[in-house]
Design brief:
single chain, 580 residues, alpha+beta, Nucleotidyltransferase, domain 5, Substrate Binding Domain Of DNAk, Chain A, domain 1, 3 domains, 7-stranded mixed sheet, 6-stranded mixed sheet, 29 strands, 26% helix, binds adenosine-5'-triphosphate, binds 2-acetamido-2-deoxy-beta-D-glucopyranose, binds magnesium ion, ATPase_NBD, ATP binding, nucleotide-binding, Hsp_70_fam
Length: 580
């Protein structure tokens, strides 16, 4: 290495990975105190004569489950395979959505299905994906800077949807650890960033000429204190959003807890496919999908470009699809009963209205945005980011819906905003000074029994005193502001004089004020054990519970006040399947 040690001491290396449902990518910024700062975003698809900020989130394994290829290359290789080859290999796409599925509790054993129906554990698929992105990023760093650096030289940032549950975030951490991104002792070198938050950080820095002007009323974000805006990350899988206020000094405060849904860009693709199936009826489309999967992939790829438009469009109909159709009847006949579609000498013509109709499902997001705007935070802007924000239909709809109340903005490269902002976030996570808690959190406590307040079946007696057990001791309310690095404290008393060990169980709920920890809607999220070696204080001893909610994740410590003994801190959201 040719740089001096003094220089290295102040070097700060960051790599951010945006692991998306549809596309993934990374960016890094290597800055040293006296060199020009270098911020780099990898461009993908050179071999496909493309230059995109992300590559498809597709991964290919051989029949022994060994990783082969990722991204455009994986897609191209899978498309080229003959049927018997494709039957052996495992090809995965859109798998990030598995972590958003209802009931996902972070199980390490959960399996997901490849395109051919074969299965692999989700943890392996995620680990191999992160492993690939990690090595490719380190390779790119060497290529662009000439420096050979290792994973341990960097702070890594991993983006996740803000609406993800803690268990899903924890799962990503586990996969990152298995991929060798961070090691056991170095866990704090992995930062989890929330996608819309990262985009917000990026957009806030952008000068006026970095926003799209077409049709949009305003072309710059007022960056001064007091500005309030919603950032809507329109991705392939999820659309999620966050509401920020700019504070004096430029820090950000979250005004409304993260919200969103799973109606991202892929719902439009799905509608387009349904439409093709409707045109090529009588099983023609199904036969085409079965026999020519690679052509279908290509067609879907072409559609990505049509998705940007808001006009009548045409998509090429391949020779094979035409042949299959002609075998049944004259191809023009297929178009007679379908509205919005016509045959135009080898191409399928789709009317503007039909194209717009594919968006109907995803445009429901505007109701959710509208609800927030109505809450009267006096929001100044709606900022659209993510690849799906490239769609004119989506942008125009947002203008129609919101331009009366606030300004609608979209950066010129909306898909890059997330990963670029994530780099900034990695450098300074405290730029978001406070967030809204999405849940009410609490611990199970015992309270002196009061007949007028508590159910008789909750009564226990210890050392001659009556207690009510399972009382929900509130630590934090849903919707409450939580400041970065702020800890909330709670004192838990002992029930037994000679108690030498205490287990503190943590719970959460979307309800405001539950009474017991086993009420409906309350779930356990983890527990901490503390040793209480010194029993001389008897029941007067106290255990202090400290919770750090402020970052994008939760950590808890329980301390025996007398001995100073501390409980292990980690919340275990990762649950093994019952059978293992
Ligand atoms: N140029 C474009 N025009 C229109 N749509 C596009 C364009 N580029 C990408 N998209 C669409 O945007 C979506 C992908 O955006 P993005 O990369 O932000 O999502 P993601 O990060 O993979 O998904 P998520 O954030 O939900 O995990 C896809 O539905 C894709 O079809
Ligand atoms: C890289 O990070 C430094 C430090 O935050 C920042 O000043 C610089 O603008 C970044 N580079 C780019 C190109 O954004
Ligand atoms: C990178 O990490 C290695 C080992 O972890 C260390 O020896 C080396 O000094 C680091 N390099 C820089 C530039 O920090
Ligand atoms: C946006 O521009 C299109 C043409 O580019 C036009 O038809 C449409 O009416 C415009 N919408 C608004 C709200 O200005
Ligand atoms: Mg995304």
């Amino acid at each position: 290495m040719n740089s001096s040690p003094e220089l290295d001491a102040v070097v700060s290396f960051i790599i951010a990975i945006d692991f998306g449902t549809a596309y993934s990518g990374y960016a890094f910024n290597i800055t040293s105190s006296d060199k020009e700062s270098d911020h780099h975003l990898k461009r993908w698809g050179k071999e496909q004569r493309l230059e995109t900020p992300k590559t498809p989130t597709c991964i290919l394994f051989n029949e022994d489950g060994k990783f082969m290829l990722f991204g455009y290359e994986a897609k191209a290789a899978y498309i080229k395979m003959r049927e018997e080859e494709a039957k052996k290999h495992l090809f995965f796409e859109n798998f990030k959505m598995a972590l958003y599925a209802k009931g996902f509790k972070g199980s390490k054993d959960m399996k997901i299905k490849a395109a051919n129906g074969k299965e692999m554990t989700a943890l392996k698929v995620f680990t191999e994906t992160l492993g690939y992105l990690k090595s490719d990023a380190l390779k790119t760093v060497t290529e662009t800077t000439g420096r050979k650096l290792q994973a341990s030289n960097f702070t890594w940032v991993l983006t996740v949807p803000a609406i993800w549950d803690h268990s899903a975030k924890q799962f990503m951490r586990e996969a990152a650890a298995q991929a060798g991104i961070v090691t056991e002792g170095d866990k704090n070198k992995l930062v989890i960033a929330l996608e819309p938050e990262a985009a917000s950080i990026w957009c806030k820095k952008l000068p006026a000429d970095c926003f799209i002007t077409q049709n949009l009323s305003e072309n710059a974000l007022d960056q001064s204190a007091g500005t309030k805006y919603i950032v809507v990350d329109c991705g392939g899988g999820t659309i999620d959003m966050t509401v920020h206020e700019v504070l004096r000094g430029g820090a950000l405060k979250e005004l409304h807890k993260a919200s969103g849904n799973d109606l991202g860009g892929q719902t439009v693709d799905r509608k387009f496919k349904e439409f093709l199936r409707e045109i090529f009826c009588d099983g023609v489309w199904d036969e085409y999908e079965r026999n020519y999967p690679s052509e279908v992939q290509e067609m879907m790829y072409d559609f990505t470009f049509l998705k940007q438009l808001d006009e009548d469009v045409e998509i090429y109909c391949s020779f094979n699809l035409g042949m299959l159709a002609q075998k049944k009847q004259n191809i023009e006949k297929f178009f007679e009963s379908v509205e919005g579609a016509s045959w135009d000498e080898g191409a399928i013509k789709i009317s503007r209205n039909k194209l717009r109709s594919f968006f109907a499902e995803s445009l429901k997001i505007s109701e959710e945005i509208g609800e927030i705007i109505k809450k009267d935070f006096s929001i100044d802007y709606v900022l659209l980011v993510g690849g799906f924000a490239n769609s004119l239909v989506l942008r125009q709809h947002s203008i129609d819906q919101f331009s009366k109340r606030c300004k609608v903005l979209c950066p010129v490269s909306p898909q890059e905003a997330i990963v670029r902002g994530a780099v900034e976030f990695g450098r300074n996570p405290e730029v978001v000074v406070s967030r809204k808690s999405r849940f009410t959190y609490g611990v199970a406590v015992c309270e002196p029994f009061d007949e007028s307040k508590y159910k008789p079946e909750k009564k226990i007696t210890a050392d001659g005193k009556d207690w009510c057990q399972d009382v929900f001791g509130r630590l934090l309310d849903e919707g409450q502001d939580v400041y970065c690095k702020e800890t909330t404290e709670h004192v838990v008393c002992l029930v037994n004089e000679n108690q030498k060990l205490m287990e503190i169980r943590f719970y959460r709920t979307e309800r405001k004020d539950p009474k017991y920890v086993d009420d409906w809607g309350v779930e356990e999220v983890g527990s901490v054990k503390v040793d209480l070696p010194d029993i001389t204080g008897g029941r007067e001893r106290e255990v202090r519970v400290e919770i750090l909610f402020g970052s994008t994740e939760i950590t808890a410590t329980a301390t025996d006040v007398v001995s100073g003994s501390e409980g292990s801190v980690s919340f275990n959201f990762l649950t093994e399947a019952e059978t293992s």
